[in-house]
Task: structure prediction
Amino acid sequence: MTEEKAGDALCGEKDMCPQERFMRQAIKLARQSVEQGGGPFGAVIVKEGKVVATGHNQVVPSCDPTAHAEVSAIRAAAAALGTFDLSGCEIYTSCEPCPMCLGAIYWARIGRMYYGCDQQDAARIGFDDSFIYREMALDPVRRRLVSCRMLADEAREAFRAWEAKPDKTEY
Ligand SMILES: [Zn+2]
Result:
C-alpha cells in the first residue's frame, strides 16, 4: 500500500480518523444550531482523544452576544474538568474563530485548533469580523470604539491589591 493510500484509509469516509470525527461533530452542531435559531457555528473540545464538551452558537436564542460556539464550549469544558486551565485540550471549530473566541482559546491555554470554514467563508454569509481584527491593531484613540482613559491611578489600586495578595491563584 502506498503512503497516500494508507492516508486515505486513515482519513477516509469509512474509517474516519479521530480528527475528522471530531470536526464532523462540530459541523453537525453548526447545522443543528441553524435549525434551533442560532448562528451556523459549532465547536468541540477534546482531551486525550475524548470529547470533553461541545458548544454551538446561541447568540440569538439566549440574547447573549458572547454566546459563540467556541466560548460556549470553553465554558462547558472548564466546568466539566473543574479547571480554568485547558492545557492539553484541542478545539475543533466549524469556522475559524472570531477575535473574541481566539482570545478565549489563548486564555484557556488550548494548545491546538482545527477549523473548517475560514474568515472569508464567514464574511461571505454576513459574519465579517475582519474589521475587529483591524481595530485591534490600532491605537485606542484611532478605533471606531470611542475610548477614553480616566482615573488610572485609582484603577491601579486593584492591581496593587492583587500584587500584595500572598495567597492569590495566578492564571
Ligand atoms: Zn467567536
User: Anything to note?
Assistant: The CA atoms of residues 20 and 97 lie 18 Å apart. The first helix runs from residue 3 to 11. Residues 68, 70, 97-98, 100-101 surround zinc ion (CB under 6 Å).
